[in-house]
Amino acid sequence: MKFPKTVKRYCPYCKKHTEHTVSITKKKNPSSLTYGSKIRARKRGQARGLGNMGRYSKPAISKFKMTGKKATKKTDLRYECKVCKKMHIQRKGFRAKKIEFK
User: Fold this and answer.
1) Which whole number is the average pLDDT over 77-96?
2) Using one digit for the tens of pLDDT, what is the confidence trace for 30-55?
3) Helices (DSSP H) in the chain: which residue ranges?
4) Strands 100-101, 2-3: parallel, antiparallel or unpaired by DSSP?
5) Model-wide pTM > 0.85
6) What is the b/e burial string over 37-46, where b = at least 16 CB atoms within 10 angstroms of the residue's CB?
7) Which CATH number is associated with domain 2-101?
8) How far is residue 73's CA from residue 58's CA, in Å, rounded to a whole number?
9) Among candidate residues 70, 72, 76, the one with its CA nearest the CA of residue 3
10) Are 20 and 7 in contact (CB under 8 A)?
């Protein structure tokens, strides 16, 4: 998928629409989070600890139709404001096999 190198979008720091440069990063695994983030994630039940997220009340995988690894990964785009040089992330990733900046 082709994506522009620069986009004009809202900067939460400048509180206005500015030009942003787009970069892509790999999704980080929970072990790379800071300690505070891990605690918050654990409180939400995402990491080890609170509950099993209904994991054991679901039927066995043999019952599911869709199994196996997904062919695409969700994007993790970072937008850097050209005015204040601060970086923020996209709110929702989309699935794409390959992203190319034009």
Assistant:
1) 92
2) 677 777 777 777 777 665 555 666 66
3) 35-43
4) parallel
5) no
6) ebeeeeeeee
7) 3.10.450.80
8) 24
9) 76
10) yes
